[in-house]
Design brief:
It is a single chain. This protein has about 100 residues and is an alpha+beta fold. The protein has 4 helices and 4 strands. It has a 4-stranded mixed sheet with strand order 1-4-3-2. It is globular, with a radius of gyration of 12 Å. Belongs to the cytochrome b5 family. MAPR subfamily. It comes from Citrus sinensis. GO terms for molecular function: steroid binding.
């Protein structure tokens, strides 16, 4: 499936009838099984329904960093992002892409 950012935001956990999605580098993961982390009130709820690539790379929960932009990230930050991506791949199914 392909999602625009406006469509992806609908999967942010506020509607209990919908799954919770988080994107990394444009790939959308179904993180519903991690609802306690990504659902409303969860420690990572700010990532739900968005591409959180930059925030994950920077290990940041700052709203300004919850963006797909990788501009200006250091090599170390890109490595951190790759580690996150591998963790998500091992734990959550990929359901689509952000377009």
């Amino acid at each position: 499936m392909e999602f625009t950012p406006a469509q992806l935001i609908q999967y942010n956990g506020t509607d209990p009838s919908k799954p919770i999605y988080v994107a990394i580098k444009g790939r959308v993961f179904d993180v519903t099984t991690g609802k306690s982390f990504y659902g409303p009130g969860g420690a990572y709820a700010m990532f739900a329904g968005k591409d959180a690539s930059r925030a994950l790379a920077k290990m940041s929960k700052n709203d300004d960093d919850v963006t797909p932009s990788l501009d200006g990230l250091t090599e170390k930050e890109m490595g951190v992002l790759s580690d996150w991506e591998k963790k998500f791949e091992a734990k959550y199914p990929v359901v689509g892409r952000v377009v």
